[in-house]
Amino acid sequence: MKVYKFGGASVKDAQGVRNLESIVRQADDELMVVVSAMGKTTNALERVVEFLDAGKEEQALNQWVDIIDYHVAIMKALGLQPGVDVRLQGEIPFDPQLPFDENYDQVVSLGEIMSTQIIAVYLLKQGLSVEWWNIPKLLRTDTTWREAKIDTETSRAAIRAGWERAQRPSMVVTQGFIGGTEDGRRTTLGREGSDYTAAVLGNFLDAESVTIWKDVPGILNADPRLEPNTILIPSLRYQDAVELSYSGAQIIHPKTIRPLENKQIPLFVKPFGDPQAAGSKIAADGIGPIDVPVYIWRKNQILITMRAKDFAFVLEESLSEIFDIIHRHRLKVSLIQSSAVTISVCVDNTRFVPEAIDELQHHFNVSYNDHLSLLTIRGTTPEILDRAKAGRTIMLSQTTRRTARLVVKED
Ligand code: ASP
Ligand code: MG
Fold this sequence. Notes:
Layout: E1 2-6, H1 14-26, E2 31-35, H2 41-53, H3 57-77, H4 100-108, H5 110-125, E3 131-133, H6 152-165, E4 171-175, E5 178-180, E6 186-188, H7 194-204, E7 209-214, E8 235-236, H8 238-247, H9 257-262, E9 267-271, E10 280-282, E11 294-308, H10 315-328, E12 333-338, E13 342-348, H11 353-363, E14 364-378, H12 382-389, E15 394-399, E16 403-409
Parallel strand pairs: 1-2, 1-7, 2-4, 3-4, 7-9, 8-10
Antiparallel strand pairs: 5-6, 9-10, 11-13, 11-14, 12-13, 14-16, 15-16
The chain binds aspartic acid and magnesium ion (MG).
Magnesium ion (MG) binds at residues 7-8, 36-37, 42.
């Protein structure tokens, strides 16, 4: 069997869903089809929760109605009858008694529920034999709301049993990005987590391969919106892919590679607009290192610099203290640099940062700069580096022989 994953952009309208249909029809294998929320639905659902949390019920309701209308319009364009073929969630599952993050998961997970319901019913009506899975019942997680951890053993058993029971030949349509707790609450695995779901299911089911269908020709050496001349990288090793995604390449979620590498399952990234194209293949026998310079931007960074409060500064002790705080506050570190009396860390500027800085200030003199991006250039040369630096304000740079990492001010 194979796993196919379709992101939000690939199913943002009826035409996208029809395209998905033609791609799954062309497959000769049994398929596990993992789908994200349609278009920008996840962002819109986030706004619903934020409005409700702020007591702005009217705005929340307007946003909610827009989301429902958007899905209804897609259903109609696909020839489905809203309310008959698919019944969308009627009420917003928000409980003011619960913590924000728990409410977030109940509401935001609906994007994937809706998209997969619509797609499964549509495929059925087109004569395909399809089963819809409500994955929160099978993919068991803990209750780390918004970043739930998968309970691998329980989930593997449930997913395998479900797949065994599925009608043959099988095509299952299910949600990426979401899971469920032991007591039946929905959870989410972290934004853009559908790739990760696809990889985990591939691992559980010993898939022959996992394919991520995207709106780009495959993995490119730079973001085509930022660099005019991009090159397709046809083949790469797992390790290269991890580095690329960790450095900020938006192409695949960083957590995607491990479950695949563990079972040596190849990952294809292919353009959904041109299913016959080769795209990129990530596998153990990939060709590496990549021989064109690769530019990767990681946006929305904040550089935090800690300076010793007294002269009794021991680097090792400070490091362990700092990383304990960073870990507890769920910060994502993208770069570290230390000198005799300072330590700088560049992290994603998330909602967790202010509290972490508060705590760091108890121990160090802390300063920080935000509105930064981290540019990683792999396969760099001195000339390439000079060109990248020109006209930019560089806050910090780290270079090795082949890789340069620049923390730059966003314009
Ligand atoms: N719909 C979720 C998000 O936008 C998950 C995903 O797209 O992978 O974050
Ligand atoms: Mg998405």
